[in-house]
Write a structure and sequence with these properties.
Number of helices: 4
Number of strands: 0
Helix content: over 70%
Order of helices and strands: HHHH
């Protein structure tokens, strides 16, 4: 990930990187599926050879190491600019490990979704037509995923972030006084 305006702890960097990598992988799968649908099965695309896959794997490995190094340097620079002690550089290897684990978990979860939709469709297919059952299965699984992501996970993540920043937000740096004049733009607002 590219640098942010504020220093990111390695755990946050790993979570963001894992989510972005899984999203990119998913978008790549969607584009490949669309191309196969548009080209058709009888005129399939040329198959990449073993050498191409090995070349891609080696190039990806090199780029991951290079950008892990560059990302840690950018984060260390931001820490220094903010007057904070930068984290040790070798700690950023943890970013790679945790991001990989998050990527695998998200991809594994995403691969379970079509199975769940088929299972719901199979159960519903006993009472309603197959096409309607398939649609209902997809809608039901999508609704559950959206509810869980939006209602539980996002809500709890935002609450955790809010509580962690609440203590920092109320602090004033040593040697800096809060303004007394309520008309001053930097004065705390009272509603």
């Amino acid at each position: 990930m590219t640098p942010s305006l504020l220093p990111r702890p390695w755990v946050l960097q790993a979570v963001i990187s894992g989510i972005v990598t899984a999203t990119g992988y998913g978008l790549g799968l969607v584009v490949a599926w669309l191309v196969r649908r548009l080209v058709g099965r009888e005129r399939s695309l040329p198959h990449a050879g073993r050498t191409a896959w090995w070349s891609l794997a080696v190039l990806s490995g090199v780029l991951i190491v290079v950008f892990l190094y560059l990302g840690s340097a950018w984060q260390r620079d931001i820490y220094r600019l903010m007057g904070l002690r930068p984290p040790v550089r070798y700690g950023y290897v943890s970013v790679l490990i945790l991001a990989g684990a998050i990527f695998l978990a998200l991809v594994g979860f995403a691969r379970l979704l079509p199975r769940a939709a088929r299972r719901v469709a199979r159960v519903l297919g006993r009472w309603i037509p197959a096409a309607v059952a398939r649609l209902a299965g997809v809608v039901a699984v999508a609704a559950v995923v959206i509810f869980v992501l939006n209602g539980l996970i996002v809500h709890r993540l935002l609450a955790a972030a809010d509580s962690s920043f609440k203590t920092i937000n109320g602090e004033t740096s040593p040697g800096v006084a809060a303004p007394d004049n309520p008309r001053d733009q930097a004065a705390p607002t009272r509603w």
